[in-house]
Every structure is written in C-alpha cells, then in structure tokens.
Amino acid sequence: MKIHRLSLPVTVSLVGLIGVLGLSGCSSNFGDSANVASQTAMSIKGIVHGGQQGLVGAHVYMFAAGVDTYGEASTSLLTAGPTTSSDGTNFFTTTDGGGNFNIGGEFACTANTNVYLYATGGDPGVGTGDNSGAGLLAVVGECGAGNTFPSTVTNIYMNEASTIAAAYALAGYTTDPTHISAPTAHSTQAQTGVTNAFNNAVNLVVQATGAVPAKTTAGNGTVPQVELNTLADILAGCINSTGPTSSGCATLFANAPNTAGVLPTNTAQAAINIAQHPGAHVSALLNLATNAGPFQPFETSATDFSVGIVYTDPTIQAPRTIAIDAVGNAWITNATSNVVTELSSTGKVLSGTTGFGKGGLFSPSGLAIDATTGTAWVTNLSTPGLLQPNHVRTLNSSGALSGDFSGSSINLPDTVSVDGLGNAWIPNTGGVGGAIIAGVTEITRAGTIPSGAAGYTVGLVNQPVGSAIDASGNLWMASSTVANVLQMNGASTANTGSFTVHLLSGGILGGTGLAIDNGGNVWVASTGLVGLLGGINKVTTSGTVTSVAPYQGPLLTTPTGIALDSAGHAWAVNNSTNALVELNNDGSLAASNGFSIPSTAGSFSIALDSSGDIWIPNSAPNGTSVTEIIGLAAPVVTPLAGNLIAPYGNPASRP
C-alpha cells in the first residue's frame, strides 16, 4: 500500500535509546496541567490484533500529528533500519506470525509532537491472505526530548478498541488516518487541544490489553464500556474477514461515509467517519455487532454513537455552570455543595477534597474566566443572612478565593461574562435596588467598579439570566421572563449607556442562554413556559431575528444552555431532558435524533473545549455528575474571553 509522502522535517536524533516501550495499563497517564508523566528513552514493541488473533504481515507506520496547518499530512517518523522496510514513500515495520512488531530504534520524533501508530492490511487467519480492508490506530503520546515517551507506557496494543478510542478522541483534528493535524507549532491553543485529545484516548482503552476500561485513568470517570465494545465489534466483522468485498466490510463501508459522502476503504477511516457522524446510519451499523463479536457485552439498541464519559466527585452537587480555561480544565459551580470543582481535560479532580471557595461561596451559579490571568469570576445567588449580601467572588488561577464584591448594584447575580480586557459584566436578576428595571454591574480586572453603586440601568429586560460578549465589545443579555434580548452597545470599550432591544420571534418566551458564533450572530436559547413557547432564536449582525429552531419535542423542549463551535454549529441542552441538540448554522437539525447525554436528567449550561469535547452538567437538584462528550464538536478557543483577543478576535474561533 502506498501512503502519500509526508513532508514535515524530523529533527530529533536517535541518541540515548536505552529503554523499551511495552503495553501500559489503566494507570497510564500522558499528563495534564497538574500531572505530567515522567519520560524515558525507548524503543517500541507492540501487537496488531483483529478480534482474538494477531494480524500477520500487517504494515505498521509511526506518525506524528502535523504541526503547521489544518488538514496537512501527518509526519512519518520511521527511518531505515533492520526492522523497517519502505513502501516507496514511507517506512513501516511488519508484524510477525503472532501479529507482533518491534521498532528497535528506527524512528525520530520532535519534542512536543503527538505520536500515533497506523497499521494496514494483514492476514486475519481466515484462509484468504491479506485483508486490505483492515486498518487500525493507536495513540502513543507526546514525544519528549531525545525520542522519549511517558515512562508508564511499555507496549502498544493495536486492535478495534484502540482504533475507536483514537478515532473519537482525535475527531476534531482528523481528516483521515494519515492526515491528523493542527497549527500546534504556531498556536498554544492548538497544541493544548491536540495534546489533550491524545490524552483522552487513553481514557477510552487500556493500552496494555486493548480492552475497554470501566473507569478512566484517574478513577472518577465512568467509561461507556458497552457502547465502545459495540463500536469495536462493528469494526471486527470487517477486519476478521476476507476483505473489502465481504459482507462485514461492504456493509460497514456503505454506512460510514465522510462529510463529502466518500466511502472509506479500510476500518480506520470508517472509525473516523463514525466518530465524526455518530448520529448517522446507527441502525445499519448496530446490526454488525453480534454475539459472535470479540468484545462483549454489546448494545442491542442505540439512538446514536456519541461517546460520553461521566465524572463524579463528592464536591459535584447540583452542578450549574461549566467554563473551560486556557489549558482545557473544566471549572464547575455547584449550587448545593457551595464550591467550585476543577477537573483536568481527562477528568482528574484538581480542586482537592473540598473544592475551591469553601466558606466563601453561597449557591454559586455563573462562572467566567479571564483569558489573560486565569481568574475565575463566580456569581452567588444565595443570601444566607442579613450580614451576607449577594456578591461576586473571584478565584485566582490556583483556585484560592481572592476578590469579594458586593453592594446595592449586585442583586441576585446569575450569570457573568468576561470581555477581552478582563472586565466582568454581571446582569442582576433582582434588578437595581429591588426595582423591576434590570441592572448591570461592571467590575474591572483591577477590582474597580465603573458602573458605580447603582450599576448601569437597562430597561425592557427583566431578570436577565444569559449573557455574552461579542467581538465589538457589546454585552448581550437575555430576559428570562420577557421575549426579548438586549444589546448593550460598546460595553467593554466606552460604555455610553445606550442599548438596543431585539424582540424574539416564533412565540418563543424567556431567554435563558446566549452564545455568539464566529460571524457575530447571537443565538438565544429559551425554555418558554412549562415546556411551551420554547426554542432557539438567532439575531443576525443586521439585527434580524428569526426563530431558527422552535419547540421540537422530544429533542428541543426546554433549551437552557447553548454554545457555538468553530464550524458554526450550535449545541443546545434542555433543562428537563437528557437530549443534546446539534443545529447547523441555518438552524436545521444536524442530527435528526439528537444525542443522548448519559447520566443526565437535565442541564443548565454547556461548554466546548479546544479538543472538540462537550462538557455538560447534570443540573438536576440531586445531580452529582458532569459528562464529557468526546470529540463531537469542532474545537474552539478557551476560555470564551480568549476568543476576543489576539490572535483571534471573534467568538467561537478555531484554535
């Protein structure tokens, strides 16, 4: 098989190769912002399996994700040596009679690049020789100086499960098995997104055995084991067959096209296409998983193939708002435990056993992060006593309580938005001094309050509970009880006190969530009243308001949270169901059946990260979990305020 020549240079020499990379187990951790695994010089050993048997004569390639642009070819890392051969463009190693391979030292990787293996072909032992429809993937991890990888990695097991794990985790940066890339050499956000995505693959498969784990590497995340078994079995029917014309391959390929409608030619590409379109051809694909499959148990029914990990921690109690910081960590307000929980991009708890802000937060609700300092702004809805007025608190980037802001202008603050200058904007649901007229409090990064003791008075918006900042520095607020949304003109640059009111259309009442796409259009999620008159409005840059997605039971019933990805797709969650809805930029449903959020009875908010993962809290009064949907969205810059500063400048920017 020929693979297109890959042009990026390899710069690290092969000096000091002293260790051996073998298979790692559940304890493997490629590191996060709080825990970076130690490195060791190495060679690579592994095995290529289809189901329960090795693939004999498979070609194993070693690649690093491209670092300059999106869509470019990955970098081939293998070099000439006693265990490698060339296909005319790239070097590969060949598996033996048991499916084993050993790369003694014939590779060179650049530090901070992310490395994976790609196997093609091989004889599955069914009597017809090489199966050209077989393609398998497995992540290795981030290369360190001198061709090193995490010391916990000792071998690489390539099979259907490792392929599914890589396909889903890397979906936001993948075109095909030899084109996984992002401008990581030029963008810290892209580097973060790709590295975190590679780390997430290790949450979905045990490198040492190729099995799907029940728990994540940190132990507090529940992996959808049965679903991942099912997806692996769907591939196995093709890999363990006579080839592309077999029923297992033909049915798989026919039901796993890419966005352009092009059918895959091997199982690795099929896995990528399924990961990027998990709501398509579900029934036909599900029929390929049977009791004869190598991965058991498996699902017999499914509405979609999105993959969600459910994280728990004693501090996660009635989680309300999630915000993602610059390194991909999730910050979560908890209305019942009265603390903020921080999870790494792989779900590890970073906020200790008691959470952040204990004793200083009371029914925390909104949270937004300063893109420059990492400061988290937290609103408090509760008033536990006369001596404890409504207030806004700040946590520094380490989670310690810092600022404390209160006064007559802060009255039942629900949400908060931070602009590109680091100013926090707080709409007050209680109005100004208890009046019906809404008020907005502005607090600068330095802690001054330009809005004064009374705040900025903005009429015609009642009880605003959703807010966002656009590229021009305008603050947008949604009224929770009146069918309108307000644009506060020039809020973050030179507030003039002027504002524009946009009336919602289509019978939609009560805006609860706001998000802005890369083109400047404002999306408003409205729960309506008792499940009626809800839906989603879109306010264009010209001020035109359209009801792009009216009430649609059972998918879009009480939408509360909404977020935009870098492809212009809107993602909405409902307060009363576990449905996640994806909308194209014109408002049409991107997936007709939506996606089911595991372990969630209803959600107040939604957040996207730079790996393309979607974070959703179980906001029910007794909710105790947060779900991370892996690789479903197009990656975005985080935190939200980071989109408003150089080198970006527009909301929902691509890293």
Helix content: 10-25%
CATH topology of the largest domain: Neuraminidase
CATH class of the largest domain: Mainly Beta
Rg from Cα = 25 Å
Count of domain modules? 2
Average pLDDT confidence is 87
CATH architecture of the largest domain: 6 Propeller
What shape does the CA trace take?
Answer: elongated
Strand content: 25-35%
Q: Low-confidence parts, pLDDT < 50 over ≥5 residues?
A: 1-41, 432-436
Please count the beta strands (DSSP E, at least 2 residues each).
Answer: 42
N/C terminus separation? 33 Å
Number of helices: 7
Q: Main beta sheet, described?
A: 6 strands, antiparallel
Assign the CATH superfamily of the largest domain. Answer: TolB, C-terminal domain
The helix/strand class is: mainly beta
